[in-house]
UniProtKB/TrEMBL annotation:
Pfam family, one: VirC1
Descriptive protein name: Chromosome partitioning protein ParA
InterPro entries found in the cross-reference section: DNA_Partitioning_ATPase, P-loop_NTPase, VirC1
Signal peptide: none
Organism domain of life: Bacteria
Amino acid sequence: MPVIVTANPKGGAGKSTATLVIAQTLAHMGASVTVIDADPNRPIVDWRSGPSSLNLTVIGDTSESAIIRQIQAEKARQQFVFVDLEGTASRLVSRAITQADLVLIPLQASGVDARQASRAVALIHEEEEALGGRVIPFRVVLTRTSQLIKTRIEKEILASLRNAELPILKTALHERQAYKAIFVRRLALHELDPAQVNGLPEALENAQALVAELVDILTADTATTEAA
């Protein structure tokens, strides 16, 4: 089953938020999902310790020596496995990337984030070489964007990414109060109270659109691999 790794050497790019939002949405749809929280701050482990009743497995006890074994074990029994990586280029990050069916590179619309995202792409290509040329698919996903209006810097970054021929998800993860609330209240999106969280229906719609695009990509990649 697919292994989705979120990677960006810069901390604060939205890796944990993107991972948890996507994983929650898939689990709520009925998929079996595991998240391996390899972020030293363990934000998703902290979320799992809360009152949410969502059927979502979270593993926080991992290490450089254990990460591949854990990924392979969860891949054998779950429909989706997510790995939320630390914001640095480390051996653990490299080992996780070698197991990925898709690497997501979250970035905010800033020049610093974009430059760090290019380091993540370079790391992916290094691991492809180490694997004898096996292609590791990846996508850039913009985070904390405005739903209605693209800022000037966002347009410039999108243009530079396209000029560099980097694949970008059509669906961005918008700036939403609900995405912060899931960590504060340690609930799933669908468990939040719409009377207390502004824009919850829009956040749910955004998450579902992002998941639908990811599933389409993974399905297409699987079909291409099988045809080859």
